[in-house]
Amino acid sequence: MKKKPFQIEIANNGREALEILERVDPLRRFSLVLMDVQMPVLDGLEATRAIRREEKWADLPIVAMTAHAMNGDRERCLQAGMNGYISKPVQPAHLLATVENFLKVRTASGERDAAPRNTPLDEALSAKLLSNEAELVSDMLQLFLQLAPERIHKLQNAVASADVSSLSQEARKIATAAQNLSVSGLSGCATDLESAATRGDFESARASLMRLQVEILALQQQATTGVAH
């Protein structure tokens, strides 16, 4: 990491990580958080949930570092609001590739130097939630968000194993669900992911998957704050 142009600040526990985020200069915002799942005082899952409760950090990528990625930690990490995970013992090359991919996505989308998004639900989805089909659409949205961690898990496995068929199928399912909900940004990311899978371009697939995770996280945040019940 020392050979890379990254500025790093270390927190000894989850509580300290939250305090660092709170006092950071807005002009020097963090671009990514590497979150150890097992920490004293406040563990990584609780720290992540606390971060996700703040709209100003809705788009901040959080990558888990866990020794139990094959024993259910992946699901718990995604459900807590993390965007990805790295298994321990951490391999330096994998760590750097993960960090650089997330930063590349943020730079490409113009978010690295911009304020975090705080936008309402897509107009089309908002209109549906206010129509005479509001209850049905709200149920569809909640079901989609409940299934999202499992779908992301399957996509991550498909990318890791270069499984073109599974990757295309899972991406198509998300694209279809997003289209039914009229969530254009999410639908576009899923379509890009399916296209990358069809081409066998797994570098683009990884980038599209990261954007997809950010879009789902934003939808979760917006659904919590933007829908009247």
In terms of topology, how is this protein built?
Blueprint: H1 14-23, E1 33-36, H2 44-52, E2 62-66, H3 69-80, E3 84-87, H4 92-108, H5 123-129, H6 134-160, H7 164-181, H8 184-199, H9 202-226
Parallel strand pairs: 1-2, 2-3
Helix pairs in contact: 1-2, 3-6, 4-9, 6-7, 6-9, 7-8, 8-9
Please give a handful of descriptors for the protein shown.
globular; mainly alpha; three-stranded parallel sheet
Characterise the protein shown here:
The chain is mainly α and 229 residues long. Helices cover 62% and strands 6% of the residues. The chain is built from 9 helices and 3 strands. It has helices spanning 14-23, 44-52, 69-80, 92-108, 123-129, 134-160, 164-181, 184-199, 202-226; strands at residues 33-36, 62-66, 84-87. The chain has a 3-stranded parallel beta sheet with strand order 1-2-3, with helices on both faces. Helix 2 (44-52) links the parallel strand 1 (33-36) and strand 2 (62-66). It is globular, with a radius of gyration of 17 Å. The N and C termini lie far apart (47 Å). The model is unreliable at 110-121 (pLDDT under 50).
In short:
The chain has 229 residues and is mostly helical.
